[in-house]
Structures are given as structure tokens and as C-alpha cells.
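Board notes (copied after class):
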Amino acid sequence: MKKIIVLGSGMVGRIMAVDLARDFDVTAADLRPANLERLKGTPVKPLAADLSDAGSVGRAVEGFDLVVGAVPGSLGFSTLRAVLEAGKDTVDISFFPEDAFLLDGLAAKNGRTAVVDCGVAPGMSNMILGHHASRMSVTHFACYVGGLPFKRDFPFEYKAPFSPADVIEEYTRPARYVENGHLVVKPALSDAELMDFPEVGTLEAFNSDGLRSLIATMSIPNMIEKTLRYPGHVERIKALRDSGFLDPEEIEVGGSRVRPLDFTSALLFKQWHLHEEDDEFTVMRIVIKGEEEGRPREIVYDLFDRRDRATGFSSMARTTGFPATAAARLILSGAFARKGICPPEYIGSDESCFRSVMAELESRNVRYERKG
């Protein structure tokens, strides 16, 4: 039986480990005892490991056939490098800010496959675009995505399945998009607009840096990604940002040095922490426009997914984690064998791989409704 290690046993890492344990011998590594404790009653083997240390990562992955990365974004790049240096194939969802293609040479030299950004968006959004871009001339791509609680608690009306620091990154990292063939950079949270979704009503979309690898791999003149929140959320976050609460530089407070970002993250964790009993949903809309066989074509994918009450798995964790576990199965079966750094659009461009991923998601009740 093939052996897999999942690095990080938080909400998403744990779900991926349990899902992969259906078919493989799976170990989940984490330093936090509480996260490892939650693996009790599952077939997953716990492993205490300091994933902030590259040497510890290298030792942890020895003897495994594939590594799944689910560490916080701040650790993602160094962890991926350590995994590739150890000569392991990997699927990663850590969404680190660094350019993954900086490790392409290392992955290729070691003959390894490294699928990165393999979540919901980036992730499934890339796969879907990669699938259609290989079959038609795409001129416009737009992705709108968000994960939200049904209960709207004031003031932020938000819950985070990831660490607050990773969420805050969406609010501080400049947003890149492509307009008329030119790269445009704007502040995150800019160009807010209201959109209606039949399942939940009106949401607010704002610019975020979710295109990532698509900017380099796709020659499409118009591409944009926007994050969805409840109306009013943008102005409240802007107030925090513009007042300095999200600044990463240290300031002196009462004789101590502190980063406002760390202070704010600690406070927001209490308000944003997604509890096991919280009912929440993921909503995504992808719009692809272009030309196919000389005719105009518009294709729309809609996803609406909510917590799985049978398993207790959150929607955002499922919609993020299952694309990665599907990619892991493709690598281990030999169906996807491209070497080097592989963003999900590379998987999507392969008809058989794309259909396999979509079928696996469907079997787990994650359904993308297509029109056009």
C-alpha cells in the first residue's frame, strides 16, 4: 500500500488525511497536540513534528511515496523546498506568497511532481480554466469565491477555516489582474461590487490576488479573481488596515516591541474561529468567455456547498481539500506524471485528469453546476 504523509493537521489537513486513508497508509504530522488528538478514531497515524524547521520536514517525509502540504502560508515555500530536496512528489495547498516556479528547477532536477495551489480558488478555478483554455480561445475569465458562515455575527460577519494571518493576507497583498492584455496591480479590497446568489442573497466582491500562476501560464487578455464577503465587510477591514492594525512592522507599546498584525490576528482569531458546530458555506462562480470553432461561447460554473452534517467536515475544508486529494490519487496512479512545479491548470488541460477530479468531487457531494 502506498504511503502518504500530510504536513499539517488543522481543519483542512485533517480532512485530507482522513479522505486519503480510504485508499492509502496515511500519517499526519503536526506540532500541536490538539490537532493530533483530533485524529483519534480515524485510520490516520499521528506524528509530532516541528514543520517550521526544514530539517525536521526532511526527516518526517522519509519513507513516504507522496507528501501533501497543508501548513500555514508563512511556512509553505520553505516546506515545499524541503520536500523537494528530500526527493518527494507533493501536492500543496499552503498558498504561500512566494513564486512557486522558483522551485521548478529543483523539482525537475530531482524528477519530482509538485502540484501547488491545489485548493478551491486557486485550485479548481485553475483546473476549470485550464480545461477550457485547451479547447477554445478564451478572452475573458472571472472567478468570484468566498467561504462564509450562515449566522452573521456583527461586526465582521465572517468565520475562518484557516489561520487569521492567512486570511489577512488576502486583505493586504496587492491584487493582480489582467485587463486588455496588461497586468494591473491594485490594493486588495478595491473595486467592491455587489452580486446576487440565489442560495444566500447579496454578497460583496472585491479584488484579491487569486490569479497567481494563471498570470504566467495563460495568455488570456482579461482575467480577474474576486473574494466574496457579506456587504459591509470590506469597509470594516479597510478601517483596520488604514488605521495600521494590519501593519507587519514592529511598533513600541509600553516598552515592548509588537507587530500590529500579530496583535490583530490574536484578537480576530477569537471572533473568526470556525467551530465544529458552525454551519457555513462556500460559494463560487466562474465565468469563461471566448470563441470555439468560430462561434462566441460563454460558460458559467456555479458552486454552492455547505457543511457536511454527516461527517461534520466544513464546506471550505472539503472544497479546498478534496481537489488536493484527487490530485494526489492522480499522481500515485501515474495518471498525472508531469515533472516540475505544476499549478492546477496543467491538470485541467488533460481531459482524462480533469474528468477524474470532477467525478471524485461529485462522489463527495461537491458539485459544480455548468451552464453553456
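Comment from the instructor: The mean pLDDT is 95. The first strand starts at residue 3 and ends at 7.
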